[in-house]
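Slides due. Your pick:
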Amino acid sequence: MSYVLNNWSWDPFFFVALAVSVAHELGLHHLAARSLPARTLARRRRSLLFYAGLLVLLVTVQSPIDYWSDYYYWVHMIQHLLLMFAAPSLIVAGAPWLPLLHFLPVRARRVVLRGLLVSSWSAPLRGAGRFLVRPWTAIVLFNISMVIWHVPALFDLGYRNQSVHIWLMHGSFFATGMLFWLQFIPSYPFRRKLAPGGQITALLGTNFVMFMLAISQSIFAPTSWYPVYSHLSGISLSPVASQQIGAGILWVCGDIWCYPAIVIAVRRLMDTDGLEGALDRFMRREARTAELARRAAASRR
């Protein structure tokens, strides 16, 4: 029980989450004054997902999970999965964007929107935002973030430097997680631009990256990747065993989130084109790919 009750940290991030929650509630109140009861009820239901995501985020960074991640690699892996998958997916599903915008008074909100959407000074920000929310940009950044922070040199840097650990490692996990899940989960006013076939491809590709990272840290790793776990006193679990458990968690959790998401994407594909239309589109794509390969081979002769 001491593993759960002890080693909680109370840092300023709690007050940031509290301030965001208050702003969200004010926004819901302002929107309710101008909306139908059914729409207000739908927003309230979505808000529960948003608050659940904030709670997961708080638990991830302030609970004993954060403390014991400095001693056990497998706990660190749980923390990474919560930051990249659980918290962002809940927050995206909660669609907090309009309530957070509407907590401002009308005049201030108009000034903010005019500055962000029309003013010339914000043009670079708008361009960067459009680039980041592009489907394949978000998916590639998510996978790069997942892989690069498990490179031993960067992982050890984050372990030794708390600023790098919190703001760069954890920050990039959470930010790219939000961008990633926006491509799959409805989150008004954002629109999913990736077609169901592309969603299936992206999900399978991300699952494959997780699978390769997992087997690299388990089956193909006779020793621990991370020297920082090799010299901790009072830890009975060896660094190699801890790494193998962490790899198993990554492997299993990758399948747990991936395949249900693929089933949903397949259902969307079938709802759009029907099974026959989906198969026909797939066969046309394969035939086109084979024809392009044949022409390329002929041109090289």
Q: What stands out?
A: The chain is about 75% helix and 0% strand. The chain has a mean pLDDT of 87. The first helix runs from residue 2 to 5. Residues 8-103+134-299 form one domain.
